[in-house]
Design brief:
11 helices; 372 residues; alpha+beta; eight-stranded mixed β-sheet
């Protein structure tokens, strides 16, 4: 990367939130900065940034504009790494197109009936004479309304003698008549395209259907948990910075707010929580970028960072008083964005269950114990 300031993107953040769209200037600034390439090696057109470089770039962009951050990072980091990990050399050109910013990708996993419960997913890939078709609906997907390609989690229709995995990743080109997209209005991250994809026997090239055991897929999805955690830290940091400015400038009862013990305690608590989250983020990212699982570390980070950012933005609203709940105020935007991170990528409640199951080595199995 040549820059980590993203000054132009930051200046347009309020506009992005108000209009619900990302201007072309933001994308041009990202391409010029080399942001997309920091996550990938030089052989694929990237710069191969280490964990510290990746985190610094991510937090800088997320602080500038959360909606732009989500859109760009889901495509380049999450989808790009899924393509690299589970694809082959034939898919390197797809990764390069994400690195250059020429194309935009979506990770299509959640369906209308459920979020984290994959057992309910119905999207199905079937073999045809010239490849495969995919049918089903994915909903509440980042980049779905605007993406060029979707890395889609689907079940495989297995014929007799096929003992391969039940699940696959299908790399689906979205510019085809059998694909319909739609927008879903959302509370925070308003600039981020968010919506659904409906596949009706849409074509998928044979090389673009990759059977993968579901347990392996969970490892790939930890990139998503990491990017959401960084978004939360950045949002909390921006809310704290706004609170510090307000505490210095606002005079009430003859003294600046920053001289009031209650406000001091809130600022100090936020500072400590944000720094703790950043330390855990660096540890988790270092492990993940080095090729290790880091699933538990990133799971803990996702739970802590996202819920912590909600607390920090709540304090910011309280410190700002009525201004903090006024539509269009910076702190009001940060509060809405922070809420989206808690449920984004994987709900923190479900992550807590997984962490507890790993601690006790007793997977949660539901057995009805009550009768009507």
């Amino acid at each position: 990367m040549t820059t980590t300031s993203f000054a132009g993107i930051a200046a347009r953040a309020a506009q992005v939130d108000a209009t619900g769209s990302i201007p072309v200037e933001n994308w041009q600034e990202l391409v010029a900065s080399g942001y997309f390439g920091v996550f990938h090696p030089p052989s694929l057109g990237g710069t191969g940034g280490d964990a510290a470089a990746q985190l610094a770039a991510m937090e800088a962009l997320a602080r500038a504009c959360s909606g732009t951050y989500w859109t760009a990072t889901v495509s380049a980091l999450l989808c790009g790494n899924l393509l690299r990990t589970y694809g082959n050399e034939k898919h390197h050109d797809l990764v390069r197109s994400l690195v250059t910013g020429e194309r935009l990708a979506a990770f299509a996993i959640v369906e209308t009936a459920a979020g984290s419960d994959a057992s309910t997913y119905q999207t199905l890939v079937r073999r045809t004479g010239d490849g495969f078709t995919i049918s089903g609906e994915k909903s509440r997907i980042t980049n779905a309304p605007r993406a060029d390609i979707a890395v889609t989690l689907a079940r495989r229709e297995r014929v007799e003698g096929d003992d391969g995995p039940e699940w696959c990743l299908a790399f689906v080109e979205l510019d085809q008549p059998s694909v319909r997209r739609y927008d879903i209005p959302h509370m925070g991250l308003r600039g981020m395209p968010w919506g659904g994809i409906v596949y009706t026997d849409a074509h998928v090239d044979e090389a673009n259907v990759i059977p993968v055991p579901f347990t392996e897929l969970a490892e790939g999805m930890t990139w998503g948990w990491l990017l959401v955690s960084v978004a939360a830290i950045a949002t909390g940091e921006s809310a704290l910075a706004a609170s510090v400015r307000h505490a210095r400038e606002r005079v009430s009862f003859g003294r600046a707010l920053g001289h009031m013990e209650g406000v001091q305690a809130q600022l100090a608590e936020s500072r400590a929580q944000l720094d703790a989250a950043r330390v855990l983020a660096l540890r988790a990212a270092t492990e993940r970028v080095a090729g290790h699982s880091a699933k538990e570390l990133i799971g803990m980070l996702k739970v802590y960072a996202t819920e912590m950012a909600v607390e920090v933005t709540q304090r910011a609203v309280q410190i700002h008083g009525a201004a903090g709940v006024t539509q269009g105020h910076e702190v009001e935007r940060h509060y809405r964005d922070a809420q989206m991170n808690v449920v984004g990528a994987f709900a923190t409640n479900r992550l807590r269950e997984q962490l507890a199951e790993n601690l006790t080595q007793t997977p949660a199995i539901y057995r009805p114990t009550l009768t009507p």
